[in-house]
Amino acid sequence: MRYLIIFFFAVFSCATAQNSIFDNLEEAPINGGLQMDDYWVWGSSVIKGDNGQYHMYASRWPKFLPFHPGWMVASEIVHATSNTPEGPYKFQDVALGSRGAQFWDGRSCHNPKIVKYNDTYILYYMGSSHPFEEVTLNNIEDFNLSSKWCIAARWQKRVGVATSKSPYGPWKRLDTPVLDVKPDSYYSFLTSNPSPLIKEDGSVVLLFKGRSYQEDGIKHSDMSIGVATAPAFDGEYTVIGTKPLFSMEHLGEVEDPHLWSDDKGFHLVAKDQRGLITGGKGDGLLAHSQDGIHWVVDDNPRAYTKLVKWNNGKTIKQGQLERPFVFVENGKPTHIFFATMDGPGGFGNGTKTWNMVIPLN
Fold first, then answer.
1. Least confident window among 6-15, 45-54, 68-77, 78-87
2. Helix pair 148-155, 67-74: axis angle to 10 deg
3. What percent of the chain lies above the pLDDT cut of 70?
4. Going along 199-264, which residue ranges are E strands?
5. Which residues fall within 8 angstroms of residue 204, CB to CB, at 6 or more apart?
């Protein structure tokens, strides 16, 4: 493994001298992306349809719930469209909503990532459920991260796939997740945050977030990022190796990985949770690979910070800037999307969230 890393480092040493994201960030359009009244909006993924329209899939949940952990029990994935990558995007329909506690993803669908292979649109996402009554205004005082709803919904988080022949659906869901947990592994507690890339031959490389149970069986670990492969999007997914790509024990804690490819190989952008890699807590990091399995952090790894320059002349430090998604058109990254929040920082201190976009020059 050590020699593979050295090899890949040498291959990319010249290519990473200039940062492909940070050095190309333009001004963010104030009216870009997706905002929705009465909803928290989070985490977008965009694809260009056959008719030239741009289709965004995003998470939303009602604002009467707290932002965190409201998404655990009431998130749904919505579909919006725009004639330009920047937007603004207009709501079209609910792609994946609640379908009952009896389903593994029956209560919450979150973290959408849209890809296409041949004539099939493939929507990867995190699903979860719980066996209790719904959270409403009548019982909202009992709802928090330690409540029965969240305890059940968090440990039932799994990665799933839905398919459709049209970006407008209908979407066919599976009865079981494609990436389940595994005892005595770094993902024994949950799997989440899928980021797929489908190769020309139809095989899949899938990055995902995992957490494990601690020895006492009560608490769970910090976040780790792993990689799985499958011969096809509807095939069997196999986690590669027993060690994660990123963890507190290796490189640092990372969240929200997004994977894309170009003629130089595979690339990922992710949130550096504690700043151990980029030096800035919550900043974006870049890494690269030749095969999607063996990864090396870029020489110049910082992809972005929370400081955003808007096209109204203002530069603002966003309260949160997460779920990076790089949109690629004609083989070139052209835009980076984020979930963002106002306020001074912290999920409990914001009053508004939306999905924003920054063009890349």
1. 6-15
2. 60
3. 94
4. 204-211, 224-230, 238-239, 254-262
5. 196, 197, 198, 229, 230, 231, 232, 233, 235, 237
Distance CA 241, CA 226 (A): 9
Model confidence pLDDT, tens digit, residues 248-273: 999 999 999 999 998 889 999 999 99
As a whole number of angstroms, the distance between CA 286 and CA 24 comes to: 14
What is the reported pLDDT for 227? Answer: 98
User: What backbone phi and psi angles, to 5 degrees, belong to 9?
Assistant: -60, -40
Contact 127, 109 (CB under 8 A): yes
DSSP state of 201: T
DSSP letters along 19-72, please? -TTGGGB-PBPTT-SB--TTEEEEEEEEEE-TTS-EEEEEEEEETTS-HHHHHH
DSSP 3-state of 303: strand
Could you tell me if 174 and 209 are in contact, meaning their C-beta atoms sit under 8 angstroms apart?
A: no
CA 32 to chain centre: 19
**Rounded alpha-carbon distances, angstroms, from residue 166 to 65, 90, 351:** 32, 17, 34
Ordered DSSP codes for 101-154: TTSTTSSEEEEEEEEEETTEEEEEEEEE--SSPPP-TTTGGG-STTSHHHHHHH
Sequence-separated (6 or more) residues with CB below 8 Å from residue 77? 57, 58, 59, 94, 95, 96, 97, 109, 110, 112, 123, 125
Query: 212: which residues sit within 8 A by CB, 6+ positions away?
Result: 185, 186, 187, 188, 189, 220, 221, 224
Residue that has been written with the tokens 């592994």 in this structure: 185
CA-CA distances (angstroms) from residue 292 to 47, 212, 265, 269, 339? 21, 23, 8, 13, 25
Rounded to the nearest 5 percent, the helix, strand and coil shares of the chain are 10, 45, 45
Give the amino acid at 256. Answer: D
Q: What is the pLDDT of residue 217?
A: 66
In sequence order, the 6+-apart residues with CB closer than 8 A to the CB of 52 are 83
